[in-house]
């Protein structure tokens, strides 16, 4: 099976992430135009329930499978890899069947009472077959990640989006005459078909590349897999806990915000508008670089697990530092642009720049969020998923406490909610770093911390000069895009000058191999 280096695997995932984000954006436009506000509302009502059920079904196993397969592969223990796959498939199939039945039975109650629209029942029932599909796909993703082969899941992501976009217009138009809920169900059918075709691709790739015969002595491997199950769940359950903490936090946030602002004397209509600005306009921009850090995190787990299995502490430190360096580099340019050009970005994208003060406040703190994901992946790869979960819980508690204290104060209002989010980001990232320092003695080298500061300051100075040019020339959209591209060129030059990207790392990328020889 083709095995990539850490950077090669991360780059494959980053490219796939860029393509699928762009195609997902197109898909959302198509769905919105075909179904209208009411149809997209029913569609979006059903999705959070689906995501929650899928999270519960997978039990955090993909990360655990990736780590345990990487460890076993490092010592060429094929029998253990077979047990990992068999145990994982049996567990996820059981949970997926259980939750599929529960979702189908509970759909009327969920639609009528919790979602307050009985029409959401049909999309919920229609989408339920996707649960076992994604469960099996999650196991195969974890296996390929553990083998440090990121191509199958990357290709599968792109295939899934292509199929979904191809099918969505057909099914929505086919079912729209029967009612808007049927149109939403049609959109769900396109999602199922896309996931199913991508799963078939991964199964084909697994059969083509596999060195394991799963059906041979299947039940014997399952019966002797108790120790493997314990090893998997030692990572999976805390990983699930971290994800559930995030889901619960997302559920509680709008409730706490609205209630706190009501105490501050802010009307519900104004609170809704301000919350929409923060979560609908500002947060997507702040989270934009995270597809890069998420890709790095996926590639990081098996790489560190392999180094740990080989007792290579030096490589573990190098991989952590490498991922932090690249994550910071991808996030710093975003921080500079969002801080300096917040009004212009929001105005060109949404028609007004009223939410710019949120961006200016939050962007610098989100630099720590961009390195948080690789740190969490490192903790999971080092069997420290439980401390990572507790750190996430502390962060959620801190965010809730700060939010209530500040948002209920008329002097802060919605700014208090923004400060609470920043406080959580800072706390969780610093706690992750503290755990790594305590357990393996890792800390960011002082020289590199200084280089990070220099990169940020020089980029900010260059961006400030370009902003001055834009304002002096009373710029338009074309000039704005041109100046951003110029800032990006300056930034890339600084990355090489300060050695955020080294020649040795570029040699690992096929495009640059021949150029640098």
Can you give me a brief rundown of this structure?
This protein is mostly helical.
Write the layout of secondary structure elements.
Blueprint lengths: L5 H53 L2 H14 L3 H37 L6 H7 L2 H17 L4 H25 L4 H30 L8 H6 L2 H38 L4 H19 L3 H20 L3 H28 L1 H9 L5 H7 L3 H16 L3 H23 L6 H27 L5 H27 L4 H21 L5 H5 L2 H7 L1
Helix pairs in contact: 1-3, 1-4, 1-5, 1-6, 1-7, 1-9, 1-11, 2-3, 2-5, 2-9, 2-11, 3-4, 3-5, 4-7, 5-7, 6-7, 9-10, 9-16, 10-14, 11-12, 11-15, 12-15, 12-18, 15-16, 15-17, 16-17, 18-19
Q: What report would you give on this structure?
A:
The protein is mainly α. 84% of the residues lie in helices and 0% in strands. It folds into three domains: 6-224, no CATH class; 237-444, no CATH class; 458-517, no CATH class. The longest helix has 53 residues, at 6-58. The two termini are 27 Å apart.
Structural descriptors:
517 residues, mainly alpha, globular, 3 domains
* Bulk shape: globular
Low-confidence runs of at least 5 consecutive residues: none
Order of helices and strands: HHHHHHHHHHHHHHHHHHHHH
Q: Which structural class best describes the helix and strand composition?
A: mainly alpha
On the 0 to 100 scale, the average pLDDT is 81
Major beta-sheet overview: none
Question: Helical region count?
Answer: 21
Strand composition percent: under 5%
Q: Which range best describes the helical content: under 10%, 10-25%, 25-40%, 40-55%, 55-70% or over 70%?
A: over 70%
Instruction: Tell me the Rg in angstroms.
Output: 24 Å
Total strands: 0
Please, how many domains? 3
Distance N to C terminus: 27 Å
